[in-house]
Amino acid sequence: MLRRQLHSQSAKTCSITYSMRNTVLHREPSIVYYPSIVASRKYSCYSSSIKTSPNNNVTSAVQTPRVIVLEGELAADHSSVEHFSNSSTITHILENNLEVISSEPAVSSLNNDKRVDVYTPSSPPSVSGTSSSAPGFTFAPSERNQIRDSWDTLMRWSKVLRTRSQENRNPLESTNKVVVFGGGSFGTAMAASLAGQKQSMEVVLLLRDIELCNDINTSHRNSRYLPDFELPANVRATTSASEAIQGAQFAVHAVPVQSTRVFLQSIKELLLPSVPIISVSKGLEVGTGLMMSELIPSALERKHPCVFLSGPSFAQEVMEGRPTGVVAACKDFELARTVQELFASQVMRVNTTSDVVGVEICGALKNVLAIAAGIVEGLDLGNNALAALIAQGCSEIRWLAEKMGARPTTMSGLSGLGDIMLTCYGSLSRNRSVGIRLGKGEKLADIVASSKQVAEGVATAGVVIILAKRYRVSLPVLTAVAQVLDNNLTPREAVYAIMNLPQIEES
């Protein structure tokens, strides 16, 4: 442990301490000090190992900086994390992976995510570039420490943002009741996820089926859709719309798209215009081609605050508490952030976007593509065919989405590629299951009749063709699915018809 003296022009002294770290390739530990932190006190810094910038705003170490020390009056000026985070100092700390030493809890808390001790090799790395033979290490020492430093910087950045977030208003604190429209698997999963966020919050499922309602209230299980999972104690169900909606601060809409208009018209007088709707339904309305963002205001006959939650999220895995990532899409940034904070947890990551059209079109069309993927699997055409078909389908979704005004980047995000991968490859996908059974020769009517839950892709497929004509976009794979569902082509005929289309340049 070493000590140095910092002197001010007014002859005051301030003793500070810094610790040494092992560093790679014999880098010397050094210190960085910021006169700008105490500019109001007119401190200056004199030290042989430190040089000051001409504007006297930032002082940087001669060697690679490893430690920043804030003690006494230095730290007192930044005794709150908010004040400290807003200074230019924090950026330099994060970028350079500095260690903060301070007796001030708010400042020293930045070190709660401790750095991984830098590994010092006993001998230089091999000229051939082979990795170290030390147990448990894959990379060469120089690469290893860069990786550790990068990870540590990320964790420190995360720490700062979490701290700032905690200082802001958390919607969970003020939310006492949420209503969930629909008691299918995903509506139930969303109810359980929210209920787990706050035990005192009431989460009410609004159902049509009195038997399922009683089952949930007595056994605390949705025995029809998720029989293996016990629901939190603060989840209950009712068939009374007025009872469910009264006092609710948020409404999660999990009713199938094709039933949405009739349902919303039946409760529009009960649902206050100030209660945001969080829609998790994916698809397009048959007959109108409307997305949920268009269908909801049309059914309610008024503008209504809405957020559209989408992404790769099987209900069963949400119930199991497995890590899940979704996107909250809304033109109102603050409302999107509110929903983000309402759902976000250690196992639920919620990104935000303003690209409502992109999120909705991807969420609707991926169900149709999943049927195509299932058909290829049902026909046992192999992985090559499956990958080629999904790649073509992704391009078709992007073509239509961009024509409708979506951002291309949405396609590569959670609601685009993420949801497509899950739905086309995941064994729990309802739409993929429909395709598999079609590929094996079953009739669509028999498949639909034997299914407990709605496969939205079946209804959406025909609507997609209407949109394709409206926006003058060619969608071979998605059109082929509609042909198969309408019994105009067999699954095998559709596949080989697409394979025999003219060879073209990829776009």
Key structural traits:
22 helices; globular; N-(1-d-carboxylethyl)-l-norvaline Dehydrogenase, domain 2; Rossmann fold; 3 domains; alpha/beta; NAD; NAD binding; 8-stranded mixed β-sheet; 507 residues
Report the biggest beta sheet as strand number plus sense, adding barrel if it closes: 8 strands, mixed
Any idea how many domains? 3
* Poorly predicted residue ranges: 1-88, 110-134
Mean pLDDT, all residues: 79
What would you call the structural class? Answer: alpha/beta
Annotated CATH topology of the largest domain: Rossmann fold
Using the CA coordinates, give the radius of gyration: 29 Å
In terms of DSSP E residues, the strand content is 5-15%
Strand element count: 17
Intertermini distance:
62 Å
Helical residue percent band? 40-55%
| The CATH top-level class label of the largest domain | Alpha Beta
Number of helices: 22
Strand order of the largest sheet: 12-9-8-13-14-15-16-17
- Overall geometry comes to globular
Q: So, CATH architecture of the largest domain?
A: 3-Layer(aba) Sandwich
CATH homologous superfamily annotation of the largest domain:
NAD(P)-binding Rossmann-like Domain
